[in-house]
Amino acid sequence: MTVPTVLIVDDHQLAREAIAEALVAMVGVDVVGTVATGKEALRAAARLIPDIVIVDLRLPDMPGDEVCAQLRRMQPDGAVIIFSASAGDDVTRRARAAGASRFVSKRRGMAGLRSALIEVGGT
């Protein structure tokens, strides 16, 4: 079985590092990169072509749902998981409209993110 590759996009360095470490330990994915901005995410995704991109909604240069929409246009077969502290029907609608494979509230923690990864990546 192929191990899915993952790119993590979050403006907080500690969050990126913690997510990466936890995912490798819990799910066994290959974290191929971590970046802090939407523009970095788009450049890294074009270069690395990850199977799954995990995107925070609040990024310093552009909204995460816009990053998601651009990623989906770049790589229609890739999966995008919006992982955000923001929650509610409006946020879920924005993620869905942008083409996100899943929306996971950070309140659900790593267990919620792990479940989403399993659903979209087959790990």
Walk me through what this model shows.
- By secondary structure, the protein is α/β, with parallel strands linked by helices.
- It has a domain at 41-86 and 93-102: Rossmann fold, CATH 3.40.50.
- The protein has helices at 13-26, 38-48, 64-74, 89-97, 109-121; strands at residues 5-9, 30-35, 52-55, 79-84, 102-105.
- A five-stranded parallel sheet has the order 2-1-3-4-5, sandwiched between helices.
- Helix 4 (89-97) links the parallel strand 4 and strand 5.
- Helix 2 runs parallel beside helix 3.
- The chain is globular and about 30 Å long.
Concise structural overview:
This protein is of the alpha/beta class and 123 residues long.
Mean pLDDT: 92
Strand order of the largest sheet: 2-1-3-4-5
The number of helical segments is: 5
Based on DSSP secondary structure assignment, what is the total number of beta strands?
Answer: 5
**Biggest sheet record:** 5 strands, parallel
Low-confidence runs (pLDDT<50, min 5 residues)? none
Radius of gyration: 13 Å
Topology record:
Blueprint: E1 5-9, H1 13-26, E2 30-35, H2 38-48, E3 52-55, H3 64-74, E4 79-84, H4 89-97, E5 102-105, H5 109-121
Parallel strand pairs: 1-2, 1-3, 3-4, 4-5
Helix pairs in contact: 2-3
Record keyword descriptors for this entry.
five-stranded parallel sheet; single chain; Rossmann fold; 5 helices; 123 residues
